[in-house]
Amino acid sequence: MNNRLSTIIDLGKNQTEETLRWKPAENKWSIVDVLCHVEEAHRFWLHELERTVKNPETKYGRGLDHYERLAAVENTDTVAVSEVLNKLQRLKSTIRSTLLSLNDRDLLIEATHKNPKFGTRPLSFLLDHFMVEHQDKHIAQINRNIEQFNSHTVTTK
Predict the structure, then answer these.
(1) What is the dihedral of CA 140, 70, 19, 5, to 10 degrees?
(2) CA–CA separation, 121 vs 109, rounded Å?
């Protein structure tokens, strides 16, 4: 997970402010939006993982309209990119310590997601789907934004 997070951080560090803040469409996320979302989502899922290990009988998760998820990308035009990147960098040690606190038995705990589409699955699914696959999707999204920005600036010059 931390390798993927490092990739996300590096992608953010290697872009201009204009590239980071450009949106491919009005209803699409900028790279800064993605960075803010990834940071918030990982903190949320790490908390859910720890909480569910302690109380596996409670449901875990959230919907797309969860207030913290929406708040993370609400005012990103005022967010300093360096601060978001620093938060992501600091998050790596939290991920590492959380994962080290788990054992194989913890990851086999069966728990039910609040969204019925995910059903009841082992907590290893939470890590694989909501963190690892989530990062992969956002890495691809960032790369798409970069490509689209580059194409957009070439065609508008």
Answers:
(1) -50
(2) 8
The reported pTM is 0.93
Q: 22: which residues sit within 8 A by CB, 6+ positions away?
A: 30, 31, 145, 149, 152
Find the length of the chain: 157
d(CA 147, CA 150): 5
> What is the spatial distance between Cα 18 and Cα 80, in angstroms, rounded to a whole number?
13
Strand bridging mode 120-122 / 110-112? antiparallel
Query: Looking up tokens 């606190």, which residue turns up?
Result: 101
pLDDT digits 0-9 by tens, 119-154: 999 999 999 999 999 999 999 999 999 999 999 877
Which residue bears the tokens 């690892």? Answer: 132
pLDDT tens, position by position, 58-72: 999 998 899 999 999
* Sequence-distant (≥ 6) Cβ neighbours of residue 116 within 8 angstroms: none
Q: Helices in the chain by DSSP H: which ranges? A: 2-13, 17-21, 31-54, 67-72, 81-100, 104-108, 123-125, 134-155
